[in-house]
Amino acid sequence: MTLPVFLAVLAAAALHAGWNAVLKIRIEPFLAMVLINGAGAALGGAAVLVTGWPIAAAWPWLIASAVIHLGYSIFLTAAYARADMGVVYPIARGSAPLITTLGSLALLREALPTLTLAGIATLASGIGLLALAGRRRSVDPRALAYAGLTAVMVSVYTLTDGLGARAAGDPHAYAAALFVLDGVGLTAVALWLRGPSGLRPLWRFRWPGLLGGAMSLCAYWIAIWAMTVAPIALVAAVRETSVLFASAIAVFWLKEPPSPARVLSACLIVTGLALIRLA
Fold first, then answer.
1. Torsion of CA 15, 20, 21, 23, to 10 degrees
2. Which single residue of 81, 164, 256, 264 has CA 20 to 30 Å from 177?
3. pLDDT: is 115 or 225 the higher one?
4. Which residues cross the membrane (predicted)?
């Protein structure tokens, strides 16, 4: 992974934490996700006018990814409805780098240097510690279960989109099409569950939703592109440093209680990143 790609994925991590914070606006998390995905679909549709649609070989991957993303959205919003961002986010992202790395090694045969694997393990340990630090006895066990399921969805859609973007030959067309499918699919589910009247409150939050949609699109667009020029497992690991940014947002913006363990976890995550770069 070259330095420009490394820095771009770090920027994507910060953007990812930002749009997750938008999910905590003053409406139900599921509706907030519908709003953000809808905005992302509109922006993706505009991008398609420039990139065009991807080639036929990419569409099986796109459809599979859209279904997986739907599960991801449902599990993530269910977790946020039951616990704070500081609890849910590290768990939802914590085990994803290791799962993705194992999947990449087993399925894609993408060999990684020993130092890189050590960096990924150290980074994941820091994320795991952050997840444990965010847990409190009062946390709803269902929130933890939904966060764990979200982590599985993250790993599966990361591998799917990495392969899909490579099959497409054009990560930009692939990313634009994916956001259109994601937004349309989740909106259709929301209309089925809530009806048009149930979505009317979204209009009042259109500007935060547009901001969240733009951050979401940019964050994952960068990741999709990066997975075509660097190993998928490496991109996934660096991207999950978003928990650092999410932790800062949770403490300083959302006013969630801080924990001394955050400092140690941050040190582990930074050490993991340093090992990855040294490799």
1. 140
2. 81
3. 225
4. 30-51, 58-81, 111-131, 143-160, 172-193, 205-226, 232-254, 261-278
